[in-house]
């Protein structure tokens, strides 16, 4: 039963990610902006990553009648999500170079080293770092623009980072409720990313394309 | 303080905004006026204007003295969509 709840949350993440991806794609089609293209890839990847975990778990339980869920599905899904987080962080990396501070390195390095015995641990660590980076950049952007929607995006990315951290922790304590909390936190985080969309007037018919 | 350059898309936004909100008269804005208001070099502006006219976002009217540019209905729609998506990207701390 617990797996069904988790799958439902993952499928919700799949839908939210796809909606955000579609919105970014419409923006890319309208303006030809490379930034919106990167966001489009990011959100599609995040959505597909959630979908792989959600559908994979349900397939194994209901179609193949496995008693336990394979971990490789989880790893694959999280890996695909990490590609999405990379594109969000990469978009920021273009406008400001990666910090070279030794303090940053001292914080980031252990996150790579500690969970070095599992691919999933490594992927979650990378996701966490990318999301924290994206959160910090968005907060800095908020400090400049004072736009409330930027604060929602920073909160969303921060919650996604927290979700990844809890997910990493749930590997350490596999029987706990942490994984459920992790997925829920990530869904709330994705939901917060919806706020900027609600402020955009949606009008159909505009297809200028990338010629501009 | 880091210098932030305008993207190609934001220059287009500035040109369209100028032709919509700051045209000196009904016939539209001249190239000289756009250079000054949108802060773009002549070479770059010429290429952009050519593209915008071919895409139907600007209407070009030629008189004896000079070419003038006026925003079209399609240009107004584009500008509205552009502003919406710019807000969206701004929320992520990004520029389109």
Structure keywords:
heterodimer, A: mainly alpha, B: 96 residues, alpha+beta, Arc Repressor Mutant, subunit A, three-stranded antiparallel sheet, 4 helices
| Beta strand % of chain B | 5-15%
The main β sheet of chain B shows up as: 3 strands, antiparallel
> Could you say how many structural domains of chain B there are in total?
1
Compute the separation of the termini of chain B in Å: 21 Å
Q: H/E series of chain A, N to C?
A: HHHHHHHH
* Side-by-side strand order of the widest sheet of chain B: 1-3-2
What would you report as the Rg of chain A, rounded to the nearest angstrom? Answer: 18 Å
Helicity range of the residues of chain B? 55-70%
Distance between the termini of chain A: 52 Å
Task: Explain what this protein looks like in three dimensions.
Chain A has 212 residues and is mainly α. Helix content of chain A is 79%, strand content 0%. Chain A has one domain (2-98, 107-200). Chain A is globular and about 50 Å long. Chain B is an alpha+beta fold and 96 residues long. Chain B has helices at residues 8-21, 31-38, 42-54, 73-91; strands at 29-30, 58-62, 67-71. In chain B, β2 (58-62) and β3 form a beta hairpin. Chain B has 4 helices and 3 strands. Chain B has one domain (8-91): Winged helix-like DNA-binding domain superfamily/Winged helix DNA-binding domain (Arc Repressor Mutant, subunit A), CATH 1.10.10. The model of chain B has no long low-confidence stretch (mean pLDDT 86). Chain B starts with 7 loop residues before the first helix and ends in a 5-residue tail after the last helix.
């Amino acid at each position: 039963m617990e797996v069904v709840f988790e799958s439902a949350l993952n499928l919700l993440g799949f839908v939210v990610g796809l909606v955000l991806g579609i919105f970014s794609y419409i923006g890319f089609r309208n303006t030809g902006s490379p930034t919106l293209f990167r966001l489009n890839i990011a959100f599609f990847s995040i959505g597909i990553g959630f979908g792989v975990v959600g559908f994979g778990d349900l397939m194994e339980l209901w179609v193949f009648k496995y008693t336990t869920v394979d971990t490789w599905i989880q790893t694959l899904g999280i890996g695909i999500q990490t590609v999405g987080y990379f594109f969000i962080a990469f978009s920021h990396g273009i406008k400001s170079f990666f910090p070279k501070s030794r303090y940053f390195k001292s914080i980031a390095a252990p996150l790579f080293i500690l969970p070095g015995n599992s691919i999933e641990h490594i992927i979650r660590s990378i996701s966490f770092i990318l999301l924290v980076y994206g959160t910090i950049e968005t907060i800095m952007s908020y400090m400049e623009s004072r736009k409330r929607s930027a604060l929602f995006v920073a909160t969303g990315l921060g919650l996604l980072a927290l979700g990844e951290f809890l997910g990493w922790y749930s590997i350490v304590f596999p029987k706990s409720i942490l994984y459920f909390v992790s997925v829920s936190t990530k869904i709330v985080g994705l939901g917060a990313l919806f706020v900027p969309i609600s402020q955009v007037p949606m009008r159909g018919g505009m297809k200028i394309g990338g010629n501009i | 303080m880091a210098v932030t350059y305008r993207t190609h898309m934001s220059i287009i936004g500035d040109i369209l905004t100028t032709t919509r909100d700051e045209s000196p008269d009904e016939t539209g804005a001249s190239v000289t006026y756009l250079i000054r208001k949108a802060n773009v070099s002549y070479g770059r502006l010429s290429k952009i204007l050519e593209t915008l006219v071919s895409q139907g976002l600007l209407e070009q009217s030629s008189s004896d003295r000079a070419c003038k540019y006026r925003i079209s209905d399609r240009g107004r729609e584009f500008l509205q969509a552009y502003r919406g998506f710019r807000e969206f990207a701004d929320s992520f701390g990004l520029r389109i």
